[in-house]
Design goal:
Blueprint (H helix, E strand, L loop, with lengths): L1 H8 L3 E7 L3 E6 L4 E5 L15 H4 L3 E2 L3 E4 L7 E4 H9 L8 E6 L4 E6 L4 E5 L15 H5 L1 E3 L4 E3 L3 E3 L1 H9 L11
Helix pairs in contact: 3-5
Length: about 180
C-alpha cells in the first residue's frame, strides 16, 4: 500500500525545460533524464506548430504529459511514453540506438540516431529479481545493442517496450529489510 501511495505522489514527468535547437530536457519521476531532439519532427503535421519558438518555449508538464500552448483552443500534448518513443524512433519509424555507455551508478547513457540522449536510471531497479544481475559490474559493462534492444551478455535482454517502461515508471519501493 505504501508503494502505491508513493507512486501516486511522484509524477511521471517531473520537469520539462525547452533548450536551444528544439530540444527538451525532460526529468522523469523514475530518475531517468531525456534530452529529446524535436528538430527532426518539425516538418510533420503533428509537431509543425513547434516551429514557432514561442509555442516551443511554452512547454510545461502536468506530471503525465508535456503541454505546449499553441495560442488556439487546441493544445499540443506529448505523453511521457511518447517522449521516449520519439527519442528512439525516427520520423520514418526506424529504430536507432547508436551507442550505449554503462555508468558507475547503475545508469546507462543511450545515444539515439534521432540526436536524443537518454540517461536511463537503473539504480532503483537493481533490487528487483529481474534486474539484480546488473549489480555485478561485469554484467552491466557487457551491455550492447542491435539498435533496438539492449543485451547484457546472455543474461538479460531488454526490448523497446521494456526500455520505455524503465525510463518512465517509478521503481518499486525498497524496504529497510530488503536492502
Amino acid at each position: 500500500m505504501a508503494g502505491e501511495e508513493r507512486k501516486q505522489k511522484i509524477p511521471i514527468i517531473r520537469t520539462v525545460t525547452p533548450l536551444d535547437h528544439h530540444r527538451l530536457h525532460i526529468g522523469f519521476g523514475s530518475g531517468s533524464v531525456l534530452e529529446l531532439n524535436m528538430e527532426n519532427r518539425l516538418c510533420t503535421n503533428r509537431y509543425y506548430e513547434l516551429n514557432d519558438d514561442a509555442v516551443f518555449r511554452s512547454a510545461v508538464t502536468d506530471g503525465s504529459k508535456i503541454i505546449f500552448d499553441t495560442g488556439t483552443r487546441f493544445k499540443l500534448e506529448i505523453f511521457a511514453r511518447e517522449t521516449v518513443d520519439r527519442a528512439i524512433r525516427d520520423p520514418d519509424g526506424g529504430m536507432g540506438i547508436l551507442r550505449i555507455q554503462p555508468l558507475e551508478n547503475g545508469s546507462l547513457r543511450l545515444e539515439m540516431k534521432s540526436g536524443s540522449i537518454l540517461m536511463l536510471n537503473m539504480e532503483n531497479w537493481l533490487h528487483t529479481i529481474r534486474y539484480s544481475p546488473l549489480k555485478e559490474p561485469e554484467v552491466l559493462q557487457s551491455v550492447s545493442t542491435d539498435g533496438e534492444n539492449l543485451f547484457f551478455g546472455d543474461i538479460l535482454t531488454i526490448d523497446l517496450e521494456e526500455l520505455i517502461m524503465l525510463a518512465i515508471s517509478i521503481p518499486p519501493v525498497v524496504s529497510e529489510e530488503e536492502s
